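re: ur msg from earlier - yeah i can do the 2KA complex, just paste it... oh wait u already did. ok heres what im feeding in:
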Amino acid sequence: MERIPVIEIFGPTIQGEGMVIGQKTMFVRTAGCDYRCRWCDSSFTWDGSAKDEIKQMTAEDIWQQLKQLGGDRFNHVTISGGNPALLKSLHALISLLKQHRMRIGLETQGSVWQDWFYDIDDFTISPKPPSSNMETNFAMLDTIMDRLASHRGQVSIKVVVFNDEDFAYAKHVHQRYPTVPFYVQVGNDDIHEGDDVTLRLKLLQKLEWLVEQVVQSNEMNDVRVLPQLHTLLWGNRRGV
Ligand SMILES: C[S@@+](CC[C@H](N)C(=O)[O-])C[C@H]1O[C@@H](n2cnc3c(N)ncnc32)[C@H](O)[C@@H]1O
Ligand SMILES: Nc1nc2[nH]cc(C(=O)O)c2c(=O)[nH]1
Ligand code: SF4
Ligand SMILES: [Mg+2]
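and the outut:
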């Protein structure tokens, strides 16, 4: 039986980001990433700090844990990471979730393709801006966007923005794929802040700044600006 490296399973909660923000969902977070974003809010998935929590699970193990946590109070499961697209073995989980009539969301940065992408209902691709210190492979991103063009599910692009340079990058990505629903998301620079009131204030100020950038730009007439709703509600906690 193929195994999937899982670092946490949680929910029911709400999708705090992007196209289906507010959707009640469970989360399955896989371990391992091909990127090392400077500001990654889930670096425990790849930096070794939570390596003892990684479980090699079968699709059936994961389903059992989802049911144990969520009972019959969910019909949507979001797969995130790390980069879940590194895992060919996820196809087994995707088909099992389909059998159980779940809708499936995926969060990935668009650096790797998998054939099971075709079975995702809510697909979020989040290419990384300069502040991450990562470099986008646009040839790969073009391939992925091209293959998903005739996808039956919803596809969107979400770029996290921390500064002017990131905003310029976001414009560039939006122009490259102009027909794909496009979201800019507030970057959280304070991933170690423990005081939720302080964090909220900072994030709302950044949201105001980002809204202003979009309002003033004639190249961003058809984009949506969002905060991370879960961070506003529950701060930097894991598993929410
Ligand atoms: C932790 S990543 C996991 C999925 C995949 N590796 C990716 O980056 O798309 C999930 C989402 O969180 C975003 N994210 C990570 N750190 C963040 C931060 N400090 N502030 C805002 N968004 C962040 C990522 O850009 C991505 O859209
Ligand atoms: N509530 C909630 N929404 C999220 N949307 C994307 C998340 C992620 O870490 O991928 C995330 C998360 O960790 N929690
Ligand atoms: S690609 Fe996603 S999980 Fe990987 S380091 Fe960047 S934000 Fe974190
Ligand atoms: Mg998160």
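cool cool. The chain has a mean pLDDT of 98. ping me if u need the other ligands too
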